[in-house]
Amino acid sequence: MRWQDGRPIERQDEDVVQHHDEVAPTRSLRDEPLSNSIAGMIQDFAGEVRGGFETLNTNQKEIRGLCETPGQKLADLAERTAALECGVSDLRRATEENREAIHQVKQGEESLQVKLETMENRMRRNNLRLLKVLEKLEKGDLKGLVVRLIKQGTQIEEEEEVLLKDIQHVHRDPFRKTTNRDKPRNILVCFHTYAIKEQLLSMALKNKTVSAEGTDFDIRSDLSTTTLNRQWEIGKRIAVLKRLGATAQLKFPAALKVMANNKMNVFRDIREVDGLIK
């Protein structure tokens, strides 16, 4: 007989006690998986929490990156804008320099043009042109015809023989200035002596129209095409100024003299006169 809790137990009770002793460990074995499950759940929860914190940290970094990106873009944009403004400033400066260079080139070109025109006129300083002399009067001797015309038309004192010797060469223009074949080509006469040429021109200008051998003709200086065109433009402005009651005349070779305020003004650039005409 065994005793338990101060009382005797029967055999059957002993078996129950034994069974109780055998069952008790079984109950603890059931409790052990439950604690393990709770621990696993706690670990899983902790893992999820850690994962959540990691995700949160990642999101925070991305948010900070997004916040920093516009600032960086603005800084890059400001840098590019400054570079463009610097480029525009350089371009404007280069443009102004080019304009100044072009202006200087134009001035040099105008100065060179004037010098070339002056040189060309000086090369022609001993030349005269005879206009409106009929070609049928030549009869194979153009030089003899010219001598007779200028001798009779200007009444120059020099003998025909002197004039023949002083003429270096004579010829008609190779090209017609108009399609009218009835209009004679101009005759170009080159003298050795400048004084004889000037004397003939002065006497012809006094008479305006020269007549000889039954024909009327004109004697003019042989000037460059540019000078002749300028004289033509000046002539148009002289006509307008005279209609306005002003005193105006040509200053050789291609300048305009205008009397204004009891003072004679000389305009070499005829565009300056246009302001007076308007």
Name given to the CATH architecture of the largest domain: 2-Layer Sandwich
CATH names the topology of the largest domain as Alpha-Beta Plaits
The stretches of 5 or more residues where confidence is low (pLDDT under 50) are 12-17, 19-31
Order of helices and strands: EEHEHHEEHEEHEEEH
How would you state the average pLDDT, rounded? 77
Number of helices: 6
Rounded to the nearest angstrom, the distance between the terminal CA atoms is 155 Å
Taken from the alpha-carbon principal axes, the silhouette is rod-shaped
Structure description:
The protein has three domains: 93 residues; 96 residues, 2-Layer Sandwich (Alpha-Beta Plaits); 51 residues, L1 transposable element, C-terminal domain (Rec A Protein, domain 2), CATH 3.30.250.20. Helices cover 62% and strands 17% of the residues. Strand 9 and strand 10 form a beta hairpin. About 7% of the residues have low confidence.
Write the topology of this structure.
Blueprint: E1 2-4, E2 7-9, H1 11-123, E3 127-131, H2 142-154, H3 160-166, E4 167-172, E5 187-191, H4 194-207, E6 210-212, E7 215-221, H5 225-243, E8 247-251, E9 255-260, E10 263-267, H6 271-277
Antiparallel strand pairs: 1-2, 3-5, 3-7, 4-5, 6-7, 8-9, 9-10
